[in-house]
Write a structure and sequence with these properties.
This protein has 412 residues and is of the alpha/beta class. Helix content is 38%, strand content 11%. The chain contains 13 helices and twelve strands. Helix 6 (233-242) packs parallel to helix 8 (262-274) and helix 11 (345-355) packs across helix 12. The radius of gyration is 20 Å and the shape is globular. Bound molecules: zinc ion. Residues 98, 100, 365 line the site of zinc ion.
């Protein structure tokens, strides 16, 4: 990770930063840390080298655009009147399985998640600068962002826990619904994370309330998250399910717990009983602090997949920069599904050819990025394959939730 020292702070902010970092230090982790080897570091560097060499070499050729707005050059989008993009074609029903709302943790003032704002400030916002950054659809999504964009991201993430993030104030229910409307996206699953903080670690509750107040529960399916070390985790999960949560999210690096630790396995057993699929962040994104990179390694996912063969697990970002290892896991475990967010178009095409479309799910990771960014790649690789397109965009999501319900009824 680049040093925090690159970010400038006011004195008031520094005080909160100190207390906030202490709170993070006190945050619950799980068992002892496992080795992160030189070979692990090398495989990440190798992925970054290889994708640079391969970019633009696939059947679609060069896939570089001037900012998010530049995606209007593609046949499926056009510029929308108030900025942003809208759909220019008809698509089958679309279900986005990977979306978040604004985060206010620790000291950050509460957000009004029911507010409509003029513009969404994405956490990685290519259109924020003039000229906008270049977007290459044929590299892992995070490779598009330079040191300045990454520094802005770190500042926003700190702000979400300390003094309040201006970007997060635009990650609201009405803004999400407006973007979904513009792009013909029917439904989305909201994925909170329980970080294990000592206080104000209540994303699941605040997002459930935001959805309840919006009356948009038919389109926004709330998710739940609990920390594997939380002694109340199973009681909380049952309560969230009773209030309408439809999916459970765990994030190994964000929670500092490997996906196969005993506390996590207890969560999966309860998800199986409740009929809730589990979305696990999978693979290294290349943005994490180095100290937690190892939690996201695919080899720590296998124990979860093997222990609960009836429970569907969605592996987030199809393994991010570890797509090869996560594809191998998906081939070995029929209960592994892949949310394809973030992958380079060429890699996504390889995954589709190797695994078939049946367990691939459209996800956008909004509001880190606009939904059109991930949608563009799914449309590129499914051009001329209408059955695959229908399945990945939404048909598979229906089957995923049905599979989770079956895991409950076949219960042990
Ligand atoms: Zn995400």
């Amino acid at each position: 990770m680049e040093p925090l020292g690159k970010i400038r702070f006011e004195r008031r902010e520094l005080l909160r930063l100190g207390v906030g970092l202490a709170a993070l230090g006190a945050a619950a982790g799980c068992g002892p840390e496992r080795p992160y080897s030189a070979a692990d570091a090398e495989s990440l560097a190798e992925q970054e080298r290889r994708e640079r060499e391969r970019s633009g070499g696939g059947p679609d050729g060069r896939l570089r655009f001037r900012g998010y707005r530049g995606l209007a050059e593609l046949p499926w989008f056009e510029p929308a009147p108030g900025g942003g993009l809208r759909l220019a074609v008809e698509l089958p029903p679309v279900f986005d399985v990977h979306v978040h709302l604004g985060m206010a943790l620790l000291f950050a003032p509460a957000l009004d998640l029911g507010r409509r704002t003029q513009r969404v400030h994405y956490l990685l916002d290519c259109d924020a600068a003039e000229p906008p950054c270049e977007i290459d659809l044929d590299v892992y999504v995070n490779s598009n962002f330079d040191a300045a964009a990454r520094s802005r991201l770190r500042r926003e993430l700190l702000a979400q826990g300390l003094w309040g993030s201006r970007a997060a104030a635009t990650h609201t229910v009405p803004n999400l619904l407006a973007e979904m409307d513009a792009l013909g996206i029917a439904r989305a699953a909201l994925l909170p994370i329980a970080f294990g903080l000592p206080f104000r670690d209540r994303l699941t509750e605040s997002w459930l309330i935001a959805v309840e107040r919006s009356g948009a529960g038919a389109r926004l399916w709330p998710g739940a998250s609990v920390h594997p070390r939380d002694p109340e985790k199973l009681v909380k999960l049952r309560g969230y399910a009773a209030r309408g949560a439809r999916i459970v999210k765990l994030h190994p690096a964000g929670q500092r717990c490997y996906a196969d630790e005993p506390g996590a396995l207890e969560i999966y057993a309860e998800c199986e009983r409740l009929g809730l699929p589990v979305l696990l962040h999978a693979g290294r994104a290349g943005l994490e602090p180095e100290s937690v990179l190892g939690y996201n390694l695919p080899r720590h996912l296998e124990g979860a997949l093997a222990a609960f063969p009836r429970l569907p697990f969605v592996l987030g970002h199809a393994g991010a920069r570890d797509a090869g290892a996560v594809l191998a896991l998906a081939r070995a475990h029929p209960n592994a599904w892949l949310d394809v967010h973030g992958q380079a178009a060429g890699v996504l095409r390889e995954i589709l050819d190797a695994l078939g479309p049946e367990r691939l799910l459209f996800g956008s990771d909004w509001p880190w990025y606009p939904q059109a960014l991930s949608l563009a790649k799914v449309l590129l690789v499914t051009e001329g394959r209408p059955e695959a397109r229908r399945a990945v965009l939404g048909g598979n999501a229906e089957r995923l939730f049905a599979a989770a319900e079956r895991s409950a009824s076949s219960g042990s």
